[in-house]
Design a protein that fits this description.
Layout: H1 18-45, H2 50-61, H3 64-78, H4 85-91, H5 107-160, H6 196-227, H7 260-356
Helix pairs in contact: 1-5, 2-3, 3-4, 5-7
């Protein structure tokens, strides 16, 4: 953010291997076949109440999702709807191929669920990263607007001879990961080795540049002398620096008095000098007003972006909650599979000991 100091990071996502992609597709295909077989059995054999009892048990433990499933199940029992409670539950999941937690009973289902959960975590992170990238694009647009306004503010401050600091807004190095691959001249602390051919080439370029610059300097001096250094003319360089010099013949010497014609001319000069001073003061106030307006617009742009960042912060918190929940569930399943393998090994060892006895 620009003013609040909030920092939001995106998620690093590991690129899956070919074997992992193949395993995921295999698990998905098997799970779809299983779901279709279950639907066919229900059509042929009628509705079962396995998930209805499960939803009622979940509701007793609490949970909005379980409550919605239980309500749908109750409607099925009452004959008010023909919507399958299994379908209701599946529609509420991030991945329709996921097993219900009470259905993950066998080792094969636990292993499949681990693979599906890993994919759910990756897709949740990718979804947040897409939103993060959208905000980065918005920030780049805001930075472009700020830079444009800062250029105009710098011009105004040059005319006003002001030294106020500009609003410093730029992308942080962490927001430009590709900069890690860029080596600036300042990063190199030792003198760069230059070959003889390179030295000769640079000398030739420098000599050609000086020869070409000689003609340009003459043109620049002519432009400076005739039009104040710009094609717009000297009067447009800086109105605040304009002066209205009093003619020397209107300055009386010691003991001298102005003639009637000189006095009239002096009054005209004073009127012109006063008009110039008034014009300069009006122009100064106009520049100061524009300066304040531009700075206010910059702050407004920053505030709008920072207010919108709350959406990104909330999305990050929701994604973190979802990822941590799925990660914990995956860890529990991995522990269950490992425990099952330990139990199988222990059972085999006991059977072997009994056989030897």
């Amino acid at each position: 953010s620009f003013t609040t100091g909030h920092i939001v990071h995106n998620f690093p996502i590991r690129v899956p291997t070919v074997e992992e992609k193949r395993t995921l597709e295999k698990v998905r295909a098997m799970r779809r076949i299983e779901i279709n077989m279950t639907k066919a059995q229900k059509r042929e054999l009628g509705m079962t109440n396995s998930l209805i009892e499960l939803a009622v048990a979940d509701t007793a433990a609490g949970g909005d999702a379980a409550l919605r499933t239980a309500e749908a199940a109750g409607e099925v029992l009452a004959g008010e709807t023909v919507e399958d409670p299994d379908e209701v539950w599946i529609k509420q999941q991030d991945d329709p191929c996921l097993y219900h937690r009470f259905e993950v009973s066998t080792r094969e289902r636990k292993t499949s669920q681990i693979v599906l959960l890993e994919d759910c975590i990756t897709r949740a992170k990718a979804s947040f990263n897409q939103l993060f990238n959208d905000f980065m694009k918005r920030k780049v647009v805001v930075l472009g607007k700020i830079e444009e306004k800062n250029l105009r503010i710098a011009e105004i401050q040059e005319e006003l001879a002001s030294t106020d600091e500009l609003f410093d807004a730029r992308l942080h190095n962490d927001e430009q990961p590709d900069r890690v691959l860029i080596v600036e001249d300042a990063d190199v602390k030792v003198d760069k080795w230059v070959s003889k051919e390179e030295i000769k080439r640079r000398q030739e370029e420098e000599a050609a540049s000086k020869k070409k610059g000689a003609g340009e300097d003459a043109a620049d001096r002519a432009l400076l002398g005739m039009m104040g250094g710009t094609l717009a003319g000297e009067s447009q360089v800086n109105k605040l620096n304009e002066t209205f010099e009093k003619p020397a013949h209107l300055i009386p010497g010691e003991g001298e008095e102005l003639t009637e014609e000189q006095a009239k001319e002096l009054k005209e000069w004073e009127a012109q000098a006063k008009a110039l001073a008034a014009e300069q003061e009006t122009y100064r106030k106009t520049l100061e007003g524009e300066n304040k307006k531009l700075r206010a617009e910059i702050l407004e742009e920053c505030k709008k972006f920072d207010d919108g960042m709350q959406e990104l912060i909330d999305a990050r918190l929701r994604t973190d909650y979802n990822v941590y929940e799925q990660e914990l569930y995956k860890i529990k399943l991995i522990q269950a599979v490992a425990q099952e393998e330990d139990d199988i090994a222990a059972s085999a060892a006991l059977k072997k000991s009994l056989t030897e006895m």
